[in-house]
Amino acid sequence: MLKQLSATFIGLLLATVGAQAAIAETVMEKIIRTGNLTIGANLDNVPFSYINENNEVVGYSIDIADRIREEVGKELGRDVVLQIVEVQDMSDALPKVKAGELDIVCDTAFTWERDRYVDFTVSYAVAGIQLLVPNDTPINSRETLMGRRVAVVPNTIVEDAIKVIQDDIEVVPVTSVRAGMEALKKGTVDAVAGDGIQMGGLRQVLDMPNTKVIPQPAEIRYGVGCMVQENNSGFLRLANRALVRLAEGYIHGDPEDVAIVDKWIGSEGLVPADNDKLRQFFNYLVVTHEQVMEPQK
Question: Fewer CB within 10 A of the terminal residue: the chain, N end or C end?
Answer without folding.
Answer: N
